[in-house]
Amino acid sequence: MLAMPAVALLLALIRQAWGGGGDVSPLLLSSALPMLGVLLFDATGALKRRQIGVDVLAVLSIAVAIALHEQATAAVVAAMAATGRLLDTFAAGKAAREMAALLQRAPRLAHRLDGEALSTVAIEEVCSGDVLLVMQGEMVPVDGPLVGEEAALDESPLTGESLPVRLQAGGWLRSGAINAGDSLRMIAARRAEDSTFNGIVKLVGQAASSKAPASRLADRYALGFIPVALALAALAWWASGDPARALAVLVVATPCPLLLAVPVALMSGISNCAGRGVLVKGGHALEALAAADVLFFDKTGTLTGGQAVLSDIRVYGALEAGALLRLAAALDQMSCHVLARAILSAAHERGSGPLPLPEQVEEKPGAGICGVVEGWRVAIGTAQYVLLHAAAEPWLLEEEKRMATEGASAVFVAVDGRLEGVLELSDQLRLETPRALRLLRRAGVRRMVMLTGDRREVAESIGGGIGVDEVHAELSPADKLERVVQASRERQRSVMVGDGVNDAPALAAAGVGVAMGARGSAAAAESADIVLLADRLDKLAEAKMVAAAALRLAAQSAALGMGLSLLAMLLAAAGYLPPLEGALLQELIDVAAIANALRALGVRPLRGQGKTLPEAKLSALRAEHRLLQPLLAKLSDLARSLPSMAAESRCVAMDELDAWLQLELLPHEQADERALYPEVSPLLGGDDPLAALSRSHQEIFRGIHRLARLFAQHRDSPSELGIQDIQQALYGLEAVLRLHFAQEDELFNSLSA
């Protein structure tokens, strides 16, 4: 559409410059007709929908130019219209919305048992009542009850929850879940077409097809401009009796600033977002993001990291926390369990050193693993599994209750037949989440709603702590979809952020669907309008600010172009601007409007943007915090065990902790106060931006010195009251340090590129 009028105009210019050759009018005419047909088709469709779009004036300009034998003018207008279409298409990209990725992930085969005979059949052949075998790592093909004693399932594709779910005999298995334990047997209760996973696929398709097409921004700007242009063209024709004047008015009125500058502004905004790790699938998504004021989001993988990490170590025996972690990690080298990987990662981060290879290893998939590590007989896993290798302790039941309340997973550790402690693993809040939600509020989001399949108490504890307006827990994919659709019915401008297959229907139905793309499912990315390539929610806040700025520049460019066009229309109506010259003048107006629109490329939404610490410096700071993490465990471990320790052991433990505080923690915090904070402050602006963190340093210094005094007093005159004072000081220092480390980590994260 663009090449044909461009080539025809080029040949016409060559002929005019050097003379010779035949008449190029037929070529100019034929080059404009295809674009005229496309514009006419779109304009007719818009009129049938009782809409009037930006294409109307372009259609009239080309048609009248052809009727008046102004073929060059027709070709110029066709070229400008085609350029606008090309830019709009390029901005939208070729993001396919089909559910190919989701369908590829769907189970296609099932292992059917006939007595003890095993056969592999197509999933469509599975009937209700069939006994199926699901091997380790395979996806559950259809819904039905569990036949065996117990099973461990990874239901993250359905619920988004990263922690394994344990089911007892008769428990309901849902298609789409992954067998994380040993091979299991089940009875098919439904056919594949009626299964949970297939239902999600259908929901996505229905939600995507129900979305109304968004009108183009240029069409909305043109609503007031078109009647003025038509009226002025008619008046010029009536006053002069010359239809060429009407054509001249229409040509300069052809809203090329809208056809060109608006797509350029949107495309520049999309390009700006891409540079920040945010893939926006078209101008309509950018427009909707800028206008959105209601934010829905999943919890796991969106607000949280989506993976289990070691959050605490509690010891109840003679071993220290570091030694307990080292033994567990050494044994977990032989396991492929998702929690084993988390424990291994924590051991490496906390400097446990080279891990010995275990011997005589035996594993019960999904339950636990045991073996010999450096002469110790170690067993780790669920409480039921570990109790096969050790006697129960009074604290065991309380730990199980606490883990269930907090939504965490417990890995119990037994050494030489004695329960020594427990490792707590949980899906933790992303470091940038609180800052991201604050930035989204600043960007115009007035209501934030958490939609999650997790338990209510866990969801509310997270949502309440970060300022979420509403929390809806224990939701199925259909429930999430209903919440988002309800917002659309109420004409709310919504954004839905998610990362799993279970979020895909809601993503497809929302005004703007945003997928966490780095670790999220392919189905979520396909259903979404925007993909966060870096899996950082604060990038969405930046993208929303960029989108709003791009739309402002689009409006400015349109106003600038239409204002200049209006002046040119008055000149044309007065007879001072012939049609072809008017078309060329319109090109200059386009250049001015486009130059203004291109400013969207340089939008910097955050004042601190561009003021960052070097990545090497940030990595070193994060590494220092990781090395200090074991100190937090030492503080709480000593506080818990002090009353039951022998006097001599108590003094040794206090001396070791005091030495660590004086030689490790105190120099670190002093270096931060004297060197790091003066370096960081100029990047943040303000007179004293780190005053709150400096105040935390004062509390840390005071806590260290107070502990040193309490330790000295207890050595001189030990008493039960003194032990209570030490416990209080230990817990207090731990709380201050946890908060301080979290604040510094968030600060470092905000200063990363």
Automatic annotation (TrEMBL):
Gene3D superfamilies: Calcium-transporting ATPase, cytoplasmic domain N, Calcium-transporting ATPase, cytoplasmic transduction domain A, HAD superfamily/HAD-like, nmb1532 protein domain like. It is an enzyme of class 7 (translocase). Residues 619-748 form the Hemerythrin-like domain. The lineage of its organism: Bacteria, Pseudomonadati, Pseudomonadota, Betaproteobacteria, Neisseriales. Its main location: membrane. Keywords: ATP-binding, Cell membrane, Membrane, Metal-binding, Nucleotide-binding, Translocase, Transmembrane, Transmembrane helix. Residues 106-204 form the P-type ATPase A domain. Its EC number is 7.2.2.12. The keyword Signal does not apply. This is P-type Zn(2+) transporter. The keyword Nucleotide-binding applies. It catalyses: Zn(2+)(in) + ATP + H2O = Zn(2+)(out) + ADP + phosphate + H(+). SUPFAM superfamilies: Calcium ATPase, transduction domain A (SSF81653), Calcium ATPase, transmembrane domain M (SSF81665), HAD-like (SSF56784).
